[in-house]
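chain below, 222 aa
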Amino acid sequence: MFGTPTCVPEECAELVPALRTGHAAILEALQAAGLAAPPYPQQLPAGNPEGTAAARAFVMQGVLKYHGLADWDWRTAYLPSISLNNDAAQTLTWVQFDPRLAADEVTIGGVPASGREQERVVRCLQFVREQAHITSRARVLTRNQLNGSPADGSAKGLGTSASGSAALAMAALTAAFGPQLGAHPRLLTCTARLLAGSGCRSAAGGLALWLSYPGIAHADSY
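prediction:
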């Protein structure tokens, strides 16, 4: 399933072979430098339908931009990109799966989420549910904290969509599968990408390279 290619916009289809070749060259260079990522998990254990976990992720600053998304559902980018995490701000997120809930409940900075904001969080949660073979809805509490700002969770900017994506992915995966899989580099970064593309770089931490090109498979864009 996750080896299936993502969307290739018609206007850039002729560029894909060259981009794919470039992607392979990057992988080869990473391998030679001892920086190869672990393989994407092919089989995951059954998840915990009542799991709870919290996570923290830091914001990042783009160094080399990705110039937009090629696939808006899987949130894969036109180009690879590089960023550097920093401690100017952070996101704290708590996730609890509860079989008794009728729908996901998402609170951001003390305010119930709605509309597109809610949909993006649910997209990530639904992906985790599918991988864990659970149907439990989730309570999500999340807030951003800028260094030196009031702790009201309303701070925005400085890459908090990336840190929010990373914190949600880690909390949801850990709640469902436990801390080992919750921190699996490839599973985590691919999952974080589903809320905001740059979330995969925040989840990686430090100096991060996001691998992507139009048509890349979900499991290969980390």
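The chain has a mean pLDDT of 94. The helical segments are 16-32, 115-132, 160-177, 179-182, 185-192, 199-204.
thats it, cya
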